[in-house]
Write a structure and sequence with these properties.
By secondary structure, this protein is of the alpha+beta class. It is built from three helices and five strands. The protein has a single domain, classed as 2-Layer Sandwich (Ribosomal Protein S5, domain 2), CATH 3.30.230. It has a five-stranded mixed sheet with strand order 1-2-5-3-4. The longest helix is centred in the middle third of the chain and has 20 residues.
Length: about 140
């Protein structure tokens, strides 16, 4: 293990942006100051736990604090897991771990590039248009 104090990395999914900070500790994971064990819904909690479970025992002496904002619940969960995975790879300095994450799910290390389309003329949004009536 390295002697680095803290490492901060970000992850994005649609409108959600997560910032994960890793530091030596007792294995606690907090999302917006809330412990991961009581984070709801359960599907989001399981999704966030994936990179921690893949690392295994090496995550027991690391504290992870995640600040997430914007988007929906599952978008926030995806952004958080990307931020956690990137910070774990950087903190543990293990190229095999990076390869494991890529084989398991590429979105663990690469943020989602999707963004809103710009509004188009003749309509209220990007795709919706004013309907024509010939009567």
């Amino acid at each position: 293990m390295t002697d680095k104090e803290t490492i901060t990395r970000t992850g994005k999914k649609k409108e959600a942006i997560a910032k994960a900070t890793i530091k030596p500790g007792k294995g606690r994971v907090r999302i917006n100051t809330k412990p991961l064990e009581i984070y709801d819904p359960e599907m989001a909690r399981l999704k966030i736990k994936e990179p921690i479970q893949l690392v295994g025992d090496r995550a027991e002496d690391i504290d992870i604090d995640i600040n997430v904002r914007g988007g929906g619940v599952m978008g926030q969960a995806d952004a958080a897991r990307t931020a956690i995975a990137n910070s774990l790879v950087e903190y543990l300095e293990d190229p095999e771990l990076e390869e494991l994450f890529k084989q398991y799910d590429r979105s663990l290390l690469i943020s989602d590039p999707r963004r809103k389309l710009p509004k188009q003329p003749m309509g209220p949004g990007a795709r919706a248009k004013r309907q024509k009536s010939y009567r």
